[in-house]
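To the wet lab folks,

You asked to see what we're planning to order before we commit. Fair enough. Below is the target structure as tokens, and below that is the sequence we designed to fit it. If anything looks off to you, flag it before the synthesis order goes out.
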């Protein structure tokens, strides 16, 4: 059995890269030397249950729930279970390199914090705390338009870290332009446009408690701090937002979650007002991926919003291979919806993703132990990725390819890490 020495060091990463795998040694040594156990479980199948004991009922339901009967959430995990990694032996994988190049910039790993809104309902550290930790561990932070912090606050907390801005796309073009200008002037380099949430889905976990945080102003901080929205609200109602939060919430949500869909031709307006890469989030069909290429955007995220929008939809991982094959040489393909482990990331990279987003797991960590909990969950996933790459014969992210995985349908592969 391998022995762990107090002085044992994790092998150096090439070119001075981050040693993500050493987090495993840190956990063991903290236990051996200090009798200190992880605050947040390292078991992906126990993370949600631990978070449930720390969160209010409405907060827990908000993050753990999905559309309808959660069939799409089940499908997301089942899709991963149908693909198996085929380990290769006697390869020199002692020193792994997890770095990737995306949109001309080198990233320490292919992992991103997914855009998740209203983080204040999970912990008072909210988005600013998570953005701070994201910079600390070198993982890009994608800020949600539904944040409970402002664009400016998140940028300040993230400091020199990499950050992207996710847009819930208003129909008011003047407000849209204002949001884009604020994001750009605060160092957000990439615009992520969510396509699948122009109206909220049927979500029983929230409906049964009549819970929607936005109705009381929670998660509307991006809008409430926007100068154009503030001006228009005052012109319409002859008062400030702070004087009538409920009415301001109705007005903001009526523009952002209006129930009116956008169309492909409207992408041009975004292109005219954003001079960086644009990534479309919510692509599930090859033809839509091809339309994204035709629209001239730089990336797509294969995603079903973590099963929160369309019940009975295909698992995102199920459609990743065909989408990557169709457009992967023309546009940067990212993956979202269902990532829970390092093995999941390897599978997604092998089947064509260039980067992956993780959402619910870091929020569960946030709920358990604040920003440090969110940090440790992501550090754990990265350590798992690092170790798993070495064990299955992958030295670099570029080594991930379809020959490393195989689709196998086992009858026992039902649910895991929902």
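Sequence we intend to order:
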């Amino acid at each position: 059995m391998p022995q762990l020495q107090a002085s044992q060091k994790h092998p150096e990463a090439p070119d001075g890269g981050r040693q993500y795998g050493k987090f495993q040694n840190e956990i063991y040594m903290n236990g051996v030397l200090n009798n200190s156990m992880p605050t947040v479980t390292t078991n992906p199948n126990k993370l949600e249950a631990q978070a449930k004991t720390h969160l209010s009922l409405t907060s827990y339901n908000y993050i753990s729930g999905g559309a309808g009967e959660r069939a799409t959430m089940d499908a997301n995990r089942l899709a991963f279970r149908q693909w198996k990694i085929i380990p290769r032996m006697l390869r020199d994988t002692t020193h792994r390199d997890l770095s990737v190049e995306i949109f001309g910039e080198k990233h320490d790993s292919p992992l991103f914090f997914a855009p998740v809104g209203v983080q204040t309902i999970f912990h008072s550290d909210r988005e600013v705390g998570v953005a701070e930790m994201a910079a600390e561990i070198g993982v890009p932070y994608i800020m949600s338009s539904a944040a409970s912090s402002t664009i400016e606050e998140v940028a300040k907390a993230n400091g020199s870290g990499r950050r992207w801005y996710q847009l819930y796309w208003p129909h008011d073009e003047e407000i849209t332009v204002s949001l884009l200008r604020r994001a750009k002037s605060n160092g957000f380099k990439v615009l992520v446009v969510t396509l699948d949430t122009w109206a909220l889905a049927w979500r029983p976990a929230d409906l049964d408690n009549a819970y929607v945080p936005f109705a009381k102003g929670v998660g509307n901080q991006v809008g409430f701090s926007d100068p154009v929205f503030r001006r228009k609200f005052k012109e319409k109602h002859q008062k400030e937002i702070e004087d009538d939060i409920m009415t301001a919430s109705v007005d903001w949500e009526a523009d952002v979650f209006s129930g009116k869909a956008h169309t492909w031709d409207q992408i041009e307006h975004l292109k005219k007002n954003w001079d960086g890469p644009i990534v479309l989030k919510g692509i599930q069909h090859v033809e839509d991926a091809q339309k994204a290429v035709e629209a001239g955007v730089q990336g797509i995220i294969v995603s079903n919003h973590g099963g929160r929008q369309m019940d009975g939809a295909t698992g995102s991982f199920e459609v990743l291979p065909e989408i990557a094959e169709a457009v992967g040489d023309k546009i940067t393909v990212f993956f979202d919806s269902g990532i829970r482990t390092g093995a999941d990331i390897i599978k997604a990279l092998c089947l064509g993703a260039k980067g992956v987003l993780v959402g619910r797991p870091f929020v569960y960590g946030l709920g358990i132990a604040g920003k440090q909990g969110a940090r440790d969950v992501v550090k754990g996933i990265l350590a798992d990725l690092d170790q798993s790459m070495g064990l299955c014969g992958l030295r670099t992210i570029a080594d991930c390819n379809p020959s490393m995985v195989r689709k196998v349908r086992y009858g026992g592969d039902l649910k895991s890490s929902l």
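Structural context that might help your review: Residues 1-8 have pLDDT under 50 and may be disordered. Residues 260 and 304 are 19 Å apart (CA to CA).

Thanks,
Computational group
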